[in-house]
Amino acid sequence: MGERLFHFLLRLYPAPFRHRYAANMLDAFRAEQAARGRFRVWTSVIVDFVKTVPRAWYGRLTAGPPPGQRIRSERQLMHLLIQDLRYAIRSLMRNPGTGVTAVLTLALGIGLTAAMFSIVNGIVLEGLPVEEPQEVMAISRMNPQESANRLAGRVRDFVDLRERQRTFDDLAAVVLTPMNVSPPDGPPEFLSGARVTASMFSLLGVAPAMGRGLVPSDEQPGAGDVIVISHEFWRGRLDGDPAALGASVRVNGQPRTVVGVMPPQFAFPFNQDLWEPLRLDPMTVPRGEGPVVFMVGRLRDGVALAAGQADLAAIMDDLGVAYPSTNAGMTVMVAPYVREVLGYQVPPLLFTMLGAVGLVLLIACANVANLQLARASTRTKELAVRTALGASRRRLAIQMLVETAVIAAAGAGLGLGLAQAAVVAFNRALQGIPQGIPFWFAIDIDPTVLAVVAGLTVMATLLAGTVPALRSSGTDVNAVLKDEARGSSSLQLGRFSRGLVIMEVAFSCALLIAAGLTIKSVQSLASFDYAFATRSVLTGAVSLPEHNYADAAARRQFATDLLDRIRAVPGVENAALGSDMPVVGFGNGRFAIEGVTYQADRDYPNARISSITSDYFRTFETAMREGRAFAPSDNANSLPVAVVNESFAREHFPDGAMGRRVRIRGTLEREVDQATQGVWYTVVGVAPDLYLEFDAFVLPVASLYLPFAQRPSSTVSLAIRTSGDPLSLTPDVRRAIGAIDQDLPLVGVDTLDGTIRSQQWLFNVFGAMFSIFGAVALFLATVGLYGVLAFTVNQRSQEMGLRTALGANPGRVIRHVVRRGVGQLAIGLGIGVVMAFGLARTLTILLFDVSATDPLVFLGIPALLVLTSVAAMLIPAHRATQVDPMDAMRR
């Protein structure tokens, strides 16, 4: 497909240029596509095409060399171009209203498209800022028989894959690790860190800016405790001191020696600041146990993704035969790193939005085409005189195209300013992402975006100017002069112009329906009943390091001391701790129900599992549906108990949940003691469905609560109900934590309302963007319909006067004018609704408690378009009734 399109572009080059570029560019295309990536090579091709082809064809079209003669010189071409540009500017200045309207129309289309392309380019297309980013792959385990969800790797599987594979330069393992960091002269703070194999830095091809990276000897048990830091950490926390190499930094309460500083903007794998060696001793770890690892690899040069996938899948098949208890049915999924980390919904969503804003650009081009047709129909006498004086049709068409090019260039310049403002606003909105911004996001107006804008300018010129140029230059001179003698014009707005209006209505209808769905989704979020009180609640979290809080007793004691200190703070009404809070989400875990037999791991059901303290439900002002909540007496020495939510009870205990017993089979929560895995918990209460994360809103999921004292977690989230401003208690809470352990920072401090708003980031930002696209499309389509009808009425003023003179009443004249617009409107709405059904399917990630085929939106948006369009039609229709019959007869 790529080479066929490339050959098509080559055919557009004039013959003297084609042979030269065919040899050079096709070879470069084939060689560089594998080395640099398809997107980068196509960008170079398009830039060269935009720079070369228009200039070459301009010379051929303006004069066209006779057979055997050379193309005109550069000086002659420049003279012709300057001449045409001067004439085009003078022509537009004579009718500034039309020119300004056309420029603003294209500025909206090009500006929004450039801004959206900047977002797609910076997030998806550019990829990682590392050597040959297209070769860096994310590797996940997967059990196709159970689900399509990706699973983290296990230590033994990673070692086997790395030793046996033949298609990758190397594999690396990463364990994401929260790190409480105490700089030499500063308060403790929570940073994202990772434990990595030494191969990670060499695999990515990124060398430290100072010092060294990790080496294999760092992974050996008993090696020194070393750490590599990010450039941002070095500048911000260590003041950019060159003597920082060799300095000691306390991480999770233990000293680490700084051995290297990475280059600016490097924060692999997501937005990490610190990297310490991952010490793997697979022979001491039972298969299927040990820390879960995130695996990455670099494909060897010339190896396709499918070959790497097949290589690792074959190894996993062999492991499944050798170790059926832990590996049966398991395979691997190899995917480009950026696509895998973003997820399989975000890139399609971004490309859908890019396509949607492309529709806005097409609407803008259609409007400008109609404007140019209207201008051409008023200049027929001028064009006829120029033809009579010897100007060829080709010369007139080129002149009209140059006028459109001037409009497009001005629109592109103004659109770039609009795009820059939009990019700044989007980057500001990115700061609201709860998990932080991935380090490779680089959204700005860079040379690639400028090249795309240049291409959009050429495309807009051709789309908006070709048909008007051909039609205006092809008029019959004799017919025009006769018509001019009668005061009319033989060049009318016909089927093509009406077709453009239909296209505008269809595109705007599709975009407005998409905008309507996202707006309704945001409204549903704003009015949603969470089943718990959200006001006057302070939230935050503390991460307990493994070194100092290795066992359940230490974590249990920390929670007890912290609650006692927080409840003593003035203004605190109640407080609770838990491994997670509502909205932020719970950890997944498998469990077994007493009396039920399970044949394999995949047969065990899943639930959201969280450990909470006794005042958890009271803090959120939530009443139990049945039974009781946890009490302080539910401690490590008492009967293990559990509380389930209503969804859990309906799904697993339809005959009643009270007194039933469950056992935790396994969980993704790394901090839970292995000793608690075989404990049977007795259900003592049923709680309402607390909506815990946004992908679980529409369909509540089964949730299981356990007493923190019986199953303590190393991630401790706080919920503090206050009598006043929650954030004003932040210093007191920090002091309470510091009094217990001065190396523990409080992170994620916010009100519960603020936390909920931050979790709604995706819905709010992209919903607002679709709303802007839809509003602009509605404006352009309405203006386009009005413009066509207004021009038609003006052109047919003589006919309208005759109708009035022959007895037609104003109502009849209005119906006659409106009837034309109604036909175009009906066809456009029908096409637009069909397009909207396809567009809505890609928006499910943005829809909260809203169906992708919501009848209210699919009926309400066409009704809105009908109202605005009819209003646009009535203005020129009313004007038609004001035509003086005598004046029309004289003209």
- Mean pLDDT level: 79
Q: Detail the poorly predicted runs.
A: 13-21, 64-72, 484-493, 667-676
Q: Per DSSP, what share of the residues sits in E-state strands of 2 or more residues?
A: 15-25%
Number of domains: 4
Q: Name the strands of the widest sheet in spatial order.
A: 3-4-9-6-8-7
Q: For the CA atoms, what is the radius of gyration?
A: 34 Å
Largest sheet: 6 strands, mixed, barrel
- Assign an overall shape: globular
Query: What proportion of the residues is helical, as a percent range?
Result: 40-55%
Question: What is the number of strand segments?
Answer: 22
Q: Kindly, what is the distance between the CA atoms of the first and last residues, rounded to a whole number of angstroms?
A: 58 Å
Structural class: alpha+beta
Describe what this molecule looks like in 3D:
This protein has 891 residues and is of the alpha+beta class. It contains 27 helices and 22 strands. It has four domains: 1-71; 73-131 and 364-492, no CATH class; 144-329, no CATH class; 549-740, no CATH class. The strands form three sheets. A six-stranded mixed β-barrel has the order 3-4-9-6-8-7. It has a six-stranded mixed barrel with strand order 14-15-20-17-19-18. The chain is globular, with a radius of gyration of 34 Å. 40% of the residues are buried.
